[in-house]
Amino acid sequence: MTKKINFFTEDLAFSPKNKTILKKWIITIIEAHQQQAGELNFVFCSDAYLHQLNVQHLGHDTLTDIITFDNGDQLGVVEGDIFISVDRVRENASTFGVLFDQELHRVMIHGTLHLLGFGDKTADEQQLMRLKEDEQIQQLADLLNIPKSAALE
Fold it and tell me: What whole-number percentage of the chain has pLDDT above 90?
């Protein structure tokens, strides 16, 4: 199985830092959940672009930071497209008092966790999702060789 994590942009210039480490992190998380990484596309875009996708595909006329499309057709293989609004991540980072990269990593893993089957519709699902996000961000801190508290601030 080819493990392919891609980073693309739509309608803006953006590139995440530490791409190689981010790819390793995502694959490690998928494999820790006894699944295989197939092709995952992270598409970084503007609020306007993601809003259009939200209206067109989900019927939601709201801004959001992420939309995840599950493209998997093989059991145990994680494949999908994860669209992330850089504008929304930047604003949320400011609102929550965290660094942009910290919020970006949280959103990236949030989408990956959705593809692994984790939901966030109910309060219990949201609590579990947040716990899993925190666990995975701590793993990234280890890969980046930074203090775990700095990754979660």
Answer: 83
State mean pLDDT over 55-83.
Answer: 93
Residue pair 31/37 in contact (Cβ under 8 Å)? The answer is yes
Number of domains in the chain: 1
Could you tell me the pTM of the whole model? 0.91
**Is residue 116 a contact partner of residue 109, using CB atoms and an 8 Å limit?**
no
Neighbours of 108 (CB within 10 A): 26
What is the rounded distance in angstroms from the CA atom of residue 105 to the CA atom of residue 90? Answer: 12
Task: Name the pLDDT band for 152 (thresholds 50, 70, 90).
Answer: very low
Q: What is the CATH number of the domain that holds 136?
A: 3.40.390.30
CB 66 within 8 Å of CB 26? no
15 and 57 in contact (C-beta within 8 Å)? no
Band of pLDDT at residue 1, cut at 50, 70 and 90: low
Domain that holds residue 70: 4-152
The answer to whether the CB of 153 falls within 8 A of the CB of 102 is yes
